[in-house]
Amino acid sequence: MLLVVALLGLTTLGLLVLNTAIAVDSLKATQLRADNAARAQEVQRLEQLVVSGSTPAAVAAAAVAAGLVPAGVAGYLVLGAEGTTTLRGTPEPAPQPPAPEPAPAPAPAPAPGSAPAPAAAVPGGN
């Protein structure tokens, strides 16, 4: 009889440990699903940024900001069977980009030993 009670007690304890392990794994799985959903939203946000940044207007604006200019008319070299080349078209050089505006000159530093300018009086101040 004592053996039956001991087996029931050990079985109950074993089921409790098993149930706890399953609950921990379930919590981990729930957390991983939430992390996966958050990462999927981040991927969608980044894909949207890529799509919006790869429109022709955005690419053109980025090229202008980088100082690139449209290419002129291109010439093509056609290779012959004997290794000869033939130029097709009349290539033209790309136009020069506009010169950048010069930076404003920095303000001159005060001379050493000169007194600082007096502070303006603040109305209502002491």
Automatic annotation (TrEMBL):
Compositional bias of kind Pro residues: 92-115
Disordered, as annotated region: 84-126
Low complexity bias (residue ranges): 116-126
Protein name per Swiss-Prot or TrEMBL: Cell division protein FtsL
Organism expressing this protein natively: Blastococcus saxobsidens (strain DD2)
